[in-house]
Design brief:
The structure holds 2 protein chains of 2 kinds.
Chain A lengths: L11 H11 L6 E13 L25 E14 L2 E13 L19 E12 L9 E7 L4 E3 L4 E4 L3 E10 L4 E15 L5 E20 L2 E13 L2 H5 L7 E14 L2 E11 L16 E13 L4 E14 L5 E13 L4 E14 L7 E13 L9 E11 L17 E12 L1
Antiparallel strand pairs in A: 1-2, 1-20, 2-3, 3-4, 4-5, 5-8, 6-7, 8-9, 9-10, 10-11, 11-12, 12-13, 13-14, 14-15, 15-16, 16-17, 17-18, 18-19, 19-20
Chain B lengths: L1 H17 L22 H10 L12 E3 L5 E6 L5 E4 L2 E4 L1 E4 L7 E8 L3 E2 L3 E6 L4 E5 L5 E3 L8 E8 L10 E7 L2 H4 L2 E4 L2 H9 L9 E5 L3 E9 L34 H16 L3 H13 L4 H9 L4
Parallel strand pairs in B: 1-5, 7-14
Antiparallel strand pairs in B: 2-15, 3-4, 5-12, 6-11, 6-15, 8-9, 8-12, 10-11, 13-14
Classes of the chains: A mainly beta, B alpha+beta.
Chain lengths: 423, 307
């Protein structure tokens, strides 16, 4: 018989076989997102996408001109009792959706309009801090508790980036979350003597959420403090003024709200954090900002679901570079059966610049789409949609289109087919 | 930048290579699930109460034969036969499993919507003796992902290493029980599933509740092993009913070994070691253990000196 049996394990073929057989126990979570498709503009040319001048977002149904994808792989690599480590990763890709070959390397390639980005690489240790049972210690690049509006792809509270923190600290009445995250401004120029280094900004993010407020209603409070983290050289530069800012967020989420939910967020920010989702910007003037974001998904009868959003943002800068943004959108979806639905999206954006004499501009967009998705929920994906989009704007003041529309035009019509999936 | 691209393409390539061809079926997110049945709880309960008992015993259930690569939807509704199981009356579907295939895995996905059939699964050997009963602990809720819907899922392996063994699990019955129907399943709100897929903060809202109903639709997939023969696998029976293969578990401990027998084996082990025949010594220790002398192995180990 075989007296040296264990050595078999170290033969490459045996080892490989063992690894392959072991895969069910080592399942990798494959998650991600994609949107891609093809479109055209009535009158000729590639699909135009419409956005009001100065608006931080645009209503997205039938109004996205690029291919964007996120590929994420994650795995719980260790678990003992309640303690575990999870390793997560994500690369994002974007391209202009113009060619087959859209390289992500920039040089020596005529079709290099692709870009890739390292968005997430982090480790999350659950229950490993014995003094804080139930909490998660994490470090690395991460999408950190982002708050968004789906139908206009608007992120109003998002400090994602390289960071570290402790999540889900159980306080009884609430869960507490503490994080330190980084964002970096563009080149800082040393006064008089060429280019300096970039300016590193820190955000210290504190959140209290899962606070019971009313039946099926929860509250969340957040405080972000952002500041520049200057080197000695940057500190000594008399011509360089660093900036810091505070952002307060209060959010209320109501479940069981007309067959769906409603989410209301109020934010107040100052100086360096104005106009952003919580990241500091050293280039800002002093000032303050108020922002209201109200959104929800409701069921209107058995066959109609509708998402709606109202946004008001007032950025008031001391140097008059601010603006008021008013936005309103609805996307009702009528479900014909478990797979097919018809969606209508109407979106309105208005921008009123703070500077004297600057014109107020607006944009109205309406899209009709026939959709086929895996399931009938508003959130069911993957989905393929055939759409037509019509937009009107102040053509004498700005051009709202990304391409194929001439300066001076005040309306545009596009059509196309788009796929969207998340998993 | 090119490095990131290469790395991630390599990652993706690995992923795809790892599950190419037939094994793509093994990725739940890539295989389509049917829509859950839309039923009224009251009328379903009424229909169940009114349904006649189809059969007198488990061996007379109408068994439908399954092919090794089967993948399909099992509709358990008021048109299905009903049987008075020990756990309560239930509509059911019964299947005859492939008998001469390789070992295979059975995957069950009971589709959840406003309601869900919380399944029980019963496996029977060729003599219609129950080998395994799966219930509430074995079916776990797995949220929708990709083309897969919200469902209560279970996986089990059926062994075919020894064909023609009458103890092989040969029949599968899918049904539900009074205990299962008393429960409910919490379904993750789709808005939360979206948020998780995008790495966003899920809205803090209550999840949906699927009532446990007597009717439902179960996706059933059989995945045959790609190679025959002895294989290591991670299968552990989810539950023992103490009657596997129809045998009762022994309840009487083996009688104590006689001192003479013990002395005989020790002597023989010493002799084998003296002639440097380690394999013989090991076999003697094993044999001694079989006749009830567990101390022979310890005795042997004491004697062996690591050089």
């Amino acid at each position: 018989m075989n007296k040296i049996q264990p050595a078999h394990l170290f033969r490459p073929s045996a080892l490989l076989a063992a690894m392959l057989l072991a895969t069910p126990a080592l399942a990798v979570d494959f998650h991600g997102y994609l949107r891609s498709g093809i479109g055209a503009t009535a009158g000729g040319g590639d699909q135009a996408c419409f956005q009001a001048a100065g608006a931080p977002a645009k209503y997205r149904l039938g109004n996205e001109c690029e291919t964007y994808a996120e590929v994420g792989l994650g795995q719980e690599v260790w678990k003992e009792g309640e303690q575990s480590f999870y390793v997560d990763s994500m690369i994002a890709y974007v391209s202009g959706q113009e060619n087959d070959w859209e390289a992500t390397d920039s040089e020596d390639n005529p079709f290099s309009d692709g870009t890739s980005s390292i968005r997430q690489f982090n480790v999350q240790g659950k229950n490993i801090l014995s003094m804080l049972p139930g909490s998660t210690l994490w470090a690395g690049k991460r999408y950190y508790q982002r708050h968004d509006v789906h139908i206009n792809d608007y992120y109003y509270w998002d400090v994602s980036g390289p960071g570290a923190g402790v999540e889900n600290i159980d306080l009884g009445f609430a869960k507490a979350h503490v994080a330190w995250v980084r964002n970096t401004d563009g080149d800082w120029v040393y006064e008089g003597a060429g280019a300096g280094t970039n300016v590193a900004n820190d955000t210290f993010d504190f959140r209290l959420n899962d606070i019971a407020f009313n039946t099926d209603g929860k509250l969340e409070f957040g405080y972000d403090f952002g500041k520049a983290n200057l080197t000695d050289l940057q500190e000594k530069d008399p011509g360089y003024q660093d900036q810091k800012g505070h952002l307060l967020t209060v959010e209320h989420v109501q479940g069981n709200w007309f067959g769906g939910y409603n989410k209301l967020a109020l934010q107040y920010g100052t100086d360096g954090i104005i106009g952003s989702s919580g990241r500091n910007s050293t280039g800002n003037s002093d000032g303050d900002m108020q922002r209201l974001v109200n959104q929800g998904v409701v069921a209107l009868g058995d066959n109609i679901e509708m998402m709606y959003v109202q946004i008001y943002e007032n950025k008031d800068f001391d140097n008059d570079s601010g603006q008021e943004w008013l936005s309103f959108g609805v996307r009702p979806v009528y479900k014909w059966d478990n797979v097919m639905s018809t969606a209508l999206e109407f979106g309105y954006d208005q921008i009123d610049p703070q500077a004297d004499g600057a014109d107020t501009v607006d944009l109205k967009k309406i899209t009709l789409a026939q959709q086929w998705s895996a399931g009938s929920s508003f959130w069911a994906r993957p989905q393929i949609r055939v759409f037509a989009t019509y937009a009107m704007w102040d053509g004498d003041k700005y051009n709202a289109a990304s391409e194929s529309v001439e300066v001076g035009d005040d309306n545009g019509l596009t059509f196309g087919v788009q796929a969207e999936a998340w998993w | 930048m090119p490095h990131f691209k290469t790395t991630s393409i390599a990652l993706l390539g690995l992923l795809l290579a790892g599950c190419a061809g037939d094994s793509l079926r093994r990725v739940d997110a890539l295989s389509q699930a049917p829509a859950p049945l839309s039923i009224s709880q009251d009328s379903a309960m009424h229909a169940l109460a009114a349904a006649p008992n189809c059969c007198s015993a488990l061996d007379t259930l109408p068994y439908t034969p399954l092919e090794p690569g089967f993948s399909g939807n099992v509709v358990i509704d008021r048109h299905a036969p009903a049987f008075q199981f020990k756990t309560g009356k239930s509509f059911f579907r019964a299947f005859k499993l492939p008998a001469h295939s390789r070992s295979f895995e059975i995957r069950l996905y009971s589709q959840a919507g406003d309601s869900v059939l919380a399944p029980n699964a019963m496996l029977l050997d060729s003599r219609f003796q129950t080998t395994r009963l799966l219930g509430v602990e074995d079916f776990s809720f797995v949220p929708a992902q990709g083309l897969k819907g919200d469902s209560l899922d279970a996986r089990l392996r059926v062994d075919r290493l020894y064909l023609d063994n009458p103890g092989n699990e040969s029949y599968l019955v899918l049904y539900t029980s009074d205990a299962q129907m008393a429960g409910k399943t919490i379904i993750e709100h789709p808005a939360k599933a979206y948020a998780k897929a995008r790495g966003n903060q899920p809205p803090n809202i209550p999840d949906l509740v699927a009532k446990h109903a007597p009717e439902g639709i179960i996706k059933l997939v059989l995945i045959e092993d790609q190679s025959g023969g002895q294989q290591a696998n991670s299968y552990v029976p989810p539950r023992s009913i103490g009657m596997e293969m129809g045998n009762q578990l022994p309840s009487v401990p083996a009688p104590a070994v006689l001192p003479e027998t013990q002395a005989y084996y020790r002597q023989a082990i010493d002799a084998a070691l003296a002639s440097q025949d380690l394999e013989r010594a090991l076999r003697l220790a094993d044999e001694a253990a079989r006749v009830g002398d567990d101390s022979a192995k310890a005795y042997l180990l004491e004697r062996i000196q690591i050089k």
